[in-house]
Structure formats: structure tokens, C-alpha cells
Amino acid sequence: MRKPMSIPWGPQGAGTGSESITYVAPGEGPSVWALQGDKYTVKAGKGTTGPGFTLLEGEIAPDNGPPMHIHNDADEIFYLLDGELTVASGEEVIKAESGAFIFIPRGAKHKFRNDSSKITKLLFVLAPAGFENFFMEIGSPVVPGKDRPDEPVGYEQLVVQRAEDFGMIIVPE
């Protein structure tokens, strides 16, 4: 894996203490399998943006998505790169397609699901940064050439506990 590239850059940005940009090549960044077969790749987080934001590249498996939840500590943005996603917030249901942008303010109850038969690829932005560590803690590292491992016994309890530690609460629908 190539090291992130740093190039001198004007005034310090986003409270990182750095005066350089960060470059992550296509296909690079730490990747994990999490939440019943989805793949999450960290492109940016607290280590590169300070308190700024987290940027994840997600691949959501067919017929998959998290339950209804709330992020108490972060705003969330989805940008669909390829595929479809059904996003629900309260009574509102959105069928989003490639190129769609969705903003979910902190405190908004929501869920999403890939109701299609192919993987949906999207970018997740969460602000402020830090939520990338949730995925790193609950996920299993992606190993090129190997299938995703089975989730361990007690995985759902781990997800709920760690979610709460990161300001995400699973809520009834």
C-alpha cells in the first residue's frame, strides 16, 4: 500500500496541525467487513482531518442495511456512486439512485437499505470526525482474495454497545 502523499499547503486546515494535503489512491485505505457483509473503506478521519470529518467509501450488499438509528453527535451525508438505496426517516421514504446526495442532520431518526440485487457503492461523510473508528472496531479486515469471514458470536451485542459509545443509538421503528 502506498503511503499517503503530503504536499506543503497554505494555512493549517481543520485543526489537524498539518500544513499538507492527504492523498489516498483508488482502492486504498483501511477496509473492513461489517454489518452483515458490507465493506467500509476509510478514506479520511480524525488522523487526517482532525475534528473535521470522516469520509468512508461503502459497498452495501444486496438486501442489506442498518436498522433505524440516530447519530446524536454527527451529521451524515450520503453520495451514491453506483446503485440504489432506500432511505427512510420517520414517514419519509426516498428511493435514491446513482448521483443522489442525501443529508441527514444529527438527531434525525433514519435507516437505509440496498433493495436491489447488486452492490450499491456510496460515499459517507460524518462530521465531526471519529466515527470511522466504530467501523474499525466492529469490522473484520478485508484480506484481498479472501471472502468475508462469518461474524463472531455476540456480534450484534458488540455493534449495539460500540454504536452507543460512538453516539449512535439503535431505535425502534
What does this entry look like structurally?
The protein is mainly beta and 173 residues long. It contains 3 helices and 12 strands, in the order E-E-H-E-E-E-E-E-E-E-E-H-E-H-E. The protein has helices at residues 46-49, 132-138, 155-165; strands at residues 31-34, 38-44, 54-60, 69-71, 75-82, 84-89, 92-97, 101-104, 111-113, 120-127, 140-141, 168-170. The strands form 3 sheets. A 7-stranded antiparallel beta sheet has the order 8-5-10-3-2-1-11. Strands 7-6-9 form a 3-stranded antiparallel beta sheet, with no helix packed on it. It is globular and about 45 Å long. The model is unreliable at 5-12 (pLDDT under 50).
What gross morphology would you assign?
Answer: globular
Report the structural category: mainly beta
Number of helices: 3
Helix content: 10-25%
Number of E strands: 12
For the largest beta-sheet, the strand count, sense and barrel status come to: 7 strands, antiparallel
Low-pLDDT stretches are 5-12
SSE topology string: EEHEEEEEEEEHEHE
Radius of gyration: 16 Å
Mean pLDDT value: 88
Write out the strand line-up for the largest beta sheet, numbering strands in chain order.
Answer: 8-5-10-3-2-1-11
The proportion of residues in beta strands is 35-45%
Distance from first to last alpha carbon:
42 Å
Question: Helix and strand layout, with pairings?
Answer:
Layout: E1 31-34, E2 38-44, H1 46-49, E3 54-60, E4 69-71, E5 75-82, E6 84-89, E7 92-97, E8 101-104, E9 111-113, E10 120-127, H2 132-138, E11 140-141, H3 155-165, E12 168-170
Antiparallel strand pairs: 1-2, 1-11, 2-3, 3-10, 4-12, 5-8, 5-10, 6-7, 6-9
